[in-house]
Structure formats: structure tokens, C-alpha cells
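We give this protein:

***
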Amino acid sequence: MSRTPCFYLLHEGASSNAIERRDLIGAAAQSAGLHFHPLDSLTCNYADLPEPNTGDLLFNATRGSTRLETLMHRPDLATFRTCNAGAFTNGGDTTALCALLAKEGFPTPKTYHRLPADNDNLNDIVSWLGGFPVVIKKLDGTLGIGAMLIESMRSLRSVLDYLRTTGEEFILRQYIEPKKIGRLLVLGDQVIASLSYKIPDDDFRSRPFREGGMQEDFGETVERLVINAGKACQHEFTGVDIIIDDTDTPYILEVNAPSNFVAIERDIGIPVSDMIVEHLMAKSIQLRDISDNV
């Protein structure tokens, strides 16, 4: 227990506030007396990766870096993962986790998980989704970019014809008229922040928190739903996006693992980075105790 653990933070370039996430976590780790070692998956030396010790901390802070995380992950490291490295999925595809949740019986919008190869059965597909409008979503889209609302068969046919030429992957999804759209930040067995996003009158997509969002308590039922969703996705730090319809029924739109926490920390003042370090440090102590007693 005398050795000072090292906190390995992985990120992919400067995408999605990666540098801000790195700096916030770095400051928290150093305040906790840890060595801090950030690794950029775009520039690190894959022929000479560091060798962590038992009880070191490993956190992939962005959607990318999944391959680097897989290479460095070991069961004796303190991480947010509750599965082994062989089960890691592309962090950019949040819809893959929604497919898992739908299979497990969680409430999610009905989803056709791949664009149909042609337009022959579009009437049946739209009917299965509940009719128009329907949503088309790019798998790795963020901040609403890549989400399209289609309100007629003529539009659907023409948009699909184009999207099939892009080489990108999309899903078709049931449209749910939103009463509220929000994100709940889950750490372990608790919701540490819950935000309600503004829905503009001239757009179906919600706006980022800094553009009119507010803190909101969604209640115990929704909190338990998103905590269980994080557990089902085998990750202890998630940002779960929800939509609530006019009957107050919640649906899970996405599970972001991990979640961008920069605005929550800097704009609201919730010390998410300190909580992240504290959570992983507790796991580190347990792992080192087990190692010392073997």
C-alpha cells in the first residue's frame, strides 16, 4: 500500500472537450496525491505503452481510444468497466448500447438498427415504427448533428437514396414527441447531476446545456431507470439521455460511456472530476489490499 498509484487517462486528440477533461481529471488526480499519466491515442507509441501496476487507475475519458483502452486494460486496474476488455464496443456508437438495453427490456424508442438496403419495404418499416414522422440518426453523431426528422415518404425515399452513398451507418427510429429531454450523469449507484435541455420551437433536437438548459430533479423512478441502464451497459460512469413524452413516460435515447462532464463541472460547479478520482481510488485500495493479501 506504500506505492503511489498512477492515474492513466486516455483520450483521442482534442475532440469533445478532451483536453478540458484531461486537465480537470489531472488536477483532481494530483490533488489526491496520484501520479498522472495522460495518453493520446492518436500520438502515443503503441510499441512502448506503459505497464501499469496492480491498483493503478485507468480511465478512457472520450469516445475514442477504445483500442488503446483494450490494450491497456487488466482486471487488477481500477476502471469504470465491469466487463473484460474482450467485450469493449466502439465508444462512438451509443446506439449499440441502446440495442442492448432494448433486448434487456428497457424502454427505448422503437429502432430499425440499419438502413434498409432498398426502398421496397419502407411502408412496412414506417408502420412498424409508428408512422411519420420518423428519425434518422447517424451512429456516431453528437450534439444532435446527424439526426434528421423525416415527415413524409417522399422525403424518406430521397434521403435514404443519398445516405446509402455516404458509406456511413445510420438507424431509423420512432419519433416521440418530447415533453422533456434530459441527461442524467451516473456514477456508480447514484445520479450526481441531472439536466433538462431546452427544446427550440423551430427544431426537434434539444440544445446543449449551455444554450438554455437547467438542473432538474426527474424523480426516483427515472433515476433508478438510468442507474440500472448504466449497470446493464457494464459501465460505472455514464451520461444517460432520456426523453419523456406527454404521458410522463421516460425512454432512454442514448447511453454515453463515458460522458462529457466539463459543462457540469465548470458551469454548475459539481466537482465531477474529484468524484471520478474518489470512486476509482476506492477501487484501487481494494485491489491493492487483495494483492497484498495473496
In short: The first strand starts at residue 6 and ends at 11. The mean pLDDT is 90. The chain is about 30% helix and 20% strand. Residues 6-91+270-293 form a domain with the Rossmann fold fold (CATH 3.40.50).
